[in-house]
Amino acid sequence: MDEKKKALKQEYRQNPAAMGIYQIHNVANGKILVGSSPNLPGVLNRHRFQLLAGNHPNKSLQSDWNQFGSDSFAFETVDELSTTEGPDYDYRPDLIFLEETWLEKFQPYGERGYNTEKKGKEEKLREIAQNRLSKETNRG
């Protein structure tokens, strides 16, 4: 049994899943959800399963799925990241950069999509400072 597990692990390492940028496109109203994953088939399957089960964390996407039905949605790979580095290379920063690039291009926010805008560096720093100030005020 251990030899079989080792062989499966070795095969998995040699044949990594496709990674990159995906979108879930509502063809009825044109809205999209853009995301990235080191395992595109896995993440698209997870989204599809959550939507079918009625418990997707993106409530707006789930609502439209319930309203328009599964036939109104396309699950698509937008950009695939090649595995050009060694097996120990961390592709997460590359995926984040690619996702930010596609989010900037598509702008899938508000009426155009299901994504929520990510906070900029300055806004995050202001929030951290405000949280620290609140904690210090509450202690005193």
Quick structural summary:
The chain is of the alpha+beta class and 140 residues long. It is built from five helices and three strands; from the N terminus they run H-E-E-H-H-E-H-H.
What shape does the CA trace take? Answer: extended
CATH class: Alpha Beta
* Separation of the first and last Cα atoms: 60 Å
Percent strand equals 15-25%
Instruction: Compute the CA-based radius of gyration.
Output: 19 Å
Class by SSE composition: alpha+beta
The sequence of SSEs as H and E is HEEHHEHH
- Kindly give the count of domains: 1
Number of helices in the DSSP assignment: 5
Estimate the mean pLDDT confidence.
90
Look at the structure and name the CATH superfamily: GIY-YIG endonuclease
Strand order of the largest sheet: 2-1-3
Summarize the amount of helix as a percent range.
40-55%
CATH topology: GIY-YIG endonuclease
